[in-house]
């Protein structure tokens, strides 16, 4: 599956065949990504990435995860996905990361909007959350810019680099998404 964001950018469905390119991207952005992502120090080889991507494919088949690589000019520059999909409660969480050189062009905002549409319209979700470390200014700017509701701070909710991080919790409901789409139509 491919979701086009514009003529040069798209979300392409996760595939294990992307392991080498994705690992090279993580490896070249290791210090940038490891500030806020707990899995980076454990991603040590193409094989590690391949195992991760195969697990993502499995979770997708089970309806628990839908993840995409972000392509710009046909090159992977990051990832985004709906994870922790709970069908009974119609909820999911959006997670994302972007290579340092690809930041500042609005790619994540466009990708999150596309994923919101997919989640609410295709997967029939009712609530989508984004969690961002209180110190991750770029990450928390995304839900704030897109009209998510700030619900509070999850104290010491994630361990990164042997230290606890507080996370800001944002949410959007399907009804809020629909109202926002009606305003832009």
From TrEMBL:
InterPro entries: Acyl_CoA_acyltransferase, GNAT_dom, Ribosomal_N-acetyltransferase. GO terms for molecular function: transferase activity. Its EC number is 2.-.-.-. It is an enzyme of class 2 (transferase). Keywords: Transferase. Residues 23-170 form the N-acetyltransferase domain. It comes from the Bacteria. PANTHER family: RIBOSOMAL-PROTEIN-SERINE ACETYLTRANSFERASE. This is GNAT family protein. It comes from Niabella yanshanensis.
């Amino acid at each position: 599956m491919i979701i086009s964001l514009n003529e040069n950018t798209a979300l392409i469905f996760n595939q294990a065949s992307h392991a080498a390119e994705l690992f090279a991207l993580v490896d070249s952005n290791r210090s940038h990504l490891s500030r806020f992502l707990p899995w980076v120090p454990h991603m040590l080889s193409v094989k590690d990435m391949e195992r991760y991507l195969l697990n993502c494919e499995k979770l997708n088949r089970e309806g628990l995860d839908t993840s995409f690589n972000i392509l710009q000019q046909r090159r992977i520059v990051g990832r985004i996905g709906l994870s922790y999909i709970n069908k009974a409660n119609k909820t999911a969480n959006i997670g994302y990361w972007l290579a340092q050189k690809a930041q500042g062009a609005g790619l994540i905002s466009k990708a999150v909007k596309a994923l919101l549409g997919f989640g609410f319209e295709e997967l029939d979700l009712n609530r989508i959350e984004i969690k961002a470390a209180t110190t991750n200014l770029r990450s928390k700017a995304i839900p704030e810019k897109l009209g998510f509701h700030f619900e509070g701070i999850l104290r010491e909710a994630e361990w990164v680099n042997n230290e606890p991080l507080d996370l800001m919790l944002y949410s959007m409901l399907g009804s809020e998404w629909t109202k926002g789409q009606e305003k832009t139509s």
